[in-house]
Amino acid sequence: MVIKVVEKARGSKEAQTIMSLQRLPSTSRSPVIPAELVECEKSTLILMPYLPSVSRYFWAASEAHSFFLYAFTQMIAAVEALHNNNIAHLDIAITNFTFVQSDIKFGSVELKKDDIYLIDFDTTKHFESGPGSNITVTDFHGGHYAPPEGPELVDPYAYDVFSLGMTLRSLTKFSQYCEPEFEPFIETLSAKDPKQRPSIHQVQRKWRSLLYLLRPRILLQDCVPI
């Protein structure tokens, strides 16, 4: 069990973000760890199960090629869920994705082995519109990766895509599986010019097309010799 204290005076959107994403339709798995929120006078307590960082355990779980790609798929879906709800994380990084080692139950919710969740919503921002609406933030305080366009006028959604590309690049170092097709895909996400980066919806479509292309190779590489 983890208890995180969010001081109300700081104006953090973390508790609000977790609440809104936990209320997503049942047809969509929430990208946030199931949590209980306890309101106190000066703070909000966030109670959640402890999950280790992907950066710590990814290498051990990525022996199967299919899991490596499954992890990528979940990370993209997590960012897409935020952007669909006009939320920018602004600190997407390998250390902010957690990994379920074995099935666990938290309250009435079951967390399944191999599922990946996004954490640390302290820098999160909520907007009235989503990607492609030319939103910029002038009070960018920095995530794990410095925006190549500079911190003065950052498109929050494009920055999330950039950070996702950098995160995927980091993960390729943890696995023996690194398809040559990954490199141009990652390069597109991490383009220096934010206008050249695809939206998260375009990222999702590109990724699905790439998975379809790689499917025969995935099936072959996941086969176990008799």
From TrEMBL:
UniProt xrefs under Pfam families: Pkinase
Domain Protein kinase: start-end pairs: 1-226
GO molecular function annotations of the record: ATP binding; protein serine/threonine kinase activity
PROSITE patterns (alphabetical): PROTEIN_KINASE_DOM (PS50011)
Nucleotide-binding in keyword set: yes
GO cellular component: cytoplasm
GO BP of this protein: intracellular signal transduction
Top-level taxonomic group: Eukaryota
Keywords: ATP-binding, Kinase, Nucleotide-binding, Serine/threonine-protein kinase, Transferase
PANTHER family assigned to the protein according to its UniProt record, in alphabetical order: KP78A-RELATED, MAP/MICROTUBULE AFFINITY-REGULATING KINASE
Family note: Belongs to the protein kinase superfamily. CAMK Ser/Thr protein kinase family. NIM1 subfamily.
Name by which UniProt lists this protein: Kinase-like domain-containing protein
Organism: Cristinia sonorae
